[in-house]
Amino acid sequence: MKKVIFFTTGMQPTGPEATAIANLNALAGAPYQVLVRRGDAARGNDNYGAGKDDCDFVAGTVPAAYSAKTVINPDAPPPPDNLPATLAIVGSGLVAGVTVTGSGTKLTLTVSGGKITAAALSA
Q1: Per residue of the chain (123 residues), what is the pLDDT tens digit?
Q2: In the chain, where does DSSP find H-type helix?
Q3: Dihedral angle over CA of 15, 36, 4, 69, nearest 10
Q4: Coil, helix or strand for 29?
Q5: In this structure, are residues 10 and 38 in contact, taking their beta carbons and an 8 Å threshold?
């Protein structure tokens, strides 16, 4: 299991931070354990005296002590390690770089390398 630490800018998450945390928690069913830590300088990131947390990824307002860690974007997380190349994780929003061809109401997506590469409409 991969661990993500999301750092807030203050004592309570802001609205956008709470949304990002919710997005990460939606992913946390299997591949991630999401911890929330206060990352601002007023409190520091000392894990309540226990020292720096070990983790695979970080998110939010990341303190300098974690700058060597990979930052995960809650709106575009990396696919799970075991996701077959013919599947893609899709959410609401724009799929950039894909042209939709055809017409109709049935949408067929082509997936390659874990990404949508083509989209076609048909009757």
Answers
A1: 678 888 898 888 899 998 888 888 776 555 677 888 877 655 555 555 666 788 888 999 888 888 899 898 887 777 777 677 777 777 666 677 788 899 999 999 888 877 788 899 998
A2: 15-27
A3: 90
A4: coil
A5: yes
Question: Which residues pair with residue 108 across a beta bridge?
Answer: 120
Q: Taking the domains of the chain in order of start, what are their residue ranges?
A: 2-71, 79-123
CA distance 58 to 73: 9
Q: Which residues of 57-94 are buried (b: 16+ CB within 10 A; e: fewer)?
A: bbbbebbeebeebeebebeebeeeeeeeeeebeeeeee
Residues pairing with 6 in the sheet: 36, 59
pTM of the entire structure? 0.47
